[in-house]
Amino acid sequence: MTLIMALKNLILGPLIKLIVKYPGVMKSRLFLKIMETFPAKISKTYDQKIAESGHEYEAALEKGLNRLPVNPRQALDSATGTGFAAFKIAEAFPDALIDGVDQAEEMIRLAREKARDKETQNIHFNTGNALALDYPANKFDLIVTSNAPVYLDEAARLLKPGGYILVTFSFLGKAILKAQKEIAGLLEKNGFKLIEVEVAEKGAYILGQKEEGNSI
User: Could you say which of 5, 53, 67, 146 would form a disulfide bridge with 57 (CB–CB 3.0 to 4.6 Å)?
Assistant: First the structure.
């Protein structure tokens, strides 16, 4: 295990457990300030680090997408970064219309460059804060968040009844699996039912579904 990986496990493991137990932490002034400044600082090396991670980075995302029981027509990649998950959604569901949103303008600039290079027609990248996005209620069939904070109340607003939320991490898979009971409770409080939590290599994914009667 590298020093960087050891530090990641040391810091992020307890942080994830804290967030599951106290999700309001993600709306605290300190957390929001970190999320406002941190992505911009790592944007230049973000894709390089993903490439260096190899299949480990994408394993949970790919497995989670493969477990979806429907083909979404409209999908949102929340906190998209440079668009990694958005492009994976497009590969899995080529007929879907995908929005990738991130509050870091530099991340979105890089994502748009990649979309132009790939000549991708069904992904649109825009700046926006995952905490409160400029979309109407009940718009999406699928919301994906990969290695980023997820705001379940906003996801519940944006998803159609019966729509799916997929949260993936490329690390700390066992810790997430152990927190399955707490995760199920957190989803239920926000109008979701837990479909499954599964490990994929070093990561894990959480698949939930918005209750059919929960229309905002």
Answer: 53
Q: Are 97 and 76 in contact (CB under 8 A)?
A: no
Is the Cβ–Cβ distance between 84 and 62 less than 8 Å? no
- Give residues with Cβ within 8 angstroms of 14, minimum separation 6: none
**Residue 215 located in a structural domain:** no
The two three-digit tokens of residue 93, written as one number? 């569901």
Bridge partner list, 33: none
CA distance 42 to 53: 15
Q: Residues of 13-50 as b/e, b for ≥16 C-beta within 10 angstroms?
A: eeebbebbeebeebeeeeeeeebeeebeeebeebbeeb
Consecutive H or E run containing 36:
helix 29-53
pLDDT in tens, the chain (216 residues): 444 444 455 555 566 666 666 566 655 665 555 555 655 655 566 666 666 666 677 899 999 999 999 999 999 999 999 999 999 999 999 999 999 999 989 999 999 999 999 999 999 999 999 888 999 999 999 999 998 888 899 999 999 999 999 999 988 788 888 889 989 999 999 999 999 999 999 899 999 999 976 655
Q: What is the CATH number of the domain that holds 44?
A: 3.40.50.150
Question: Residues 83, 144: contact at Cβ < 8 Å?
Answer: no
